[in-house]
């Protein structure tokens, strides 16, 4: 299995599990414009990450999984923007994390597209 695929699947698995194990931080960055409960969105996005990770590890579904991962990284971008806005007056460390996540989405999308090829 390609190292890139294994690493991406591991990242998605880790974050997917964290959505269930420690949901509160994820709840806090769910955009208010989404309908329903924030926890529901946290669990749905965690389940999506786990499903995409599973698709990536299997060679038959890797192309689909990589494409879905790229879409997922684009789809969660509004949550990262919300975090940056919410933390704009936080400590320098928190601001660095929040604002650092924004440009990180670009290499994540490119990584997922590479895995899809």
UniProtKB/TrEMBL annotation:
InterPro entries found in the cross-reference section: Methylamine_util_MauE (IPR009908)
Subcellular location: Membrane
Methylamine utilisation protein MauE domain boundaries: 6-75
Superkingdom of this protein's organism: Bacteria
Alphabetical keyword list: Membrane, Transmembrane, Transmembrane helix
Membrane-related topology note: Multi-pass membrane protein
Main location per the UniProt record: membrane
Record protein name field: Methylamine utilisation protein MauE domain-containing protein
